[in-house]
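Subject: for your reference before the review

Hello V.,

The reviewers asked for a structural picture of the protein, and I figured it would be easier to keep everything in one thread rather than splitting it across files. Below is the amino acid sequence we used in the manuscript, unchanged from the supplementary table.
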Amino acid sequence: MTHIVVLTTVASLEDARTLARTMVERRLAACAQISPIESYYHWHGAVHNEPEFRIAFKTVAERYAHIEAAIRAQHPYELPDIHALSLDHVYAPYAQWVEQATAPVPVA
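And here is what came back from the structure prediction:
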């Protein structure tokens, strides 16, 4: 199973916490980490500089389409930055936990 970190950014800590909690509750991510950052970017013909919060979601590649769709549905930005980084090496016990935590719950 391929492990990935899905990244996105939002403007407020409240939005970051909402996205983090939702993705973990839905088992789309095993965990989510929130970090404050400073961003420079081109948007609508101007260079902007804003504080943001980066959210790193730990998950598996098989869940990428689902987590991307869920982030898009909740994201406050017109054009959200959503991308994934593949992890070449993951500590085996941690990898097993991520796989268990992101496995869909069987429907009875």
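For the response letter, the relevant points are probably these. The two ends are 25 Å apart (CA to CA). Strands lie at 3-10, 31-43, 46-60, 82-87.

Happy to draft the paragraph if you're swamped.

O.
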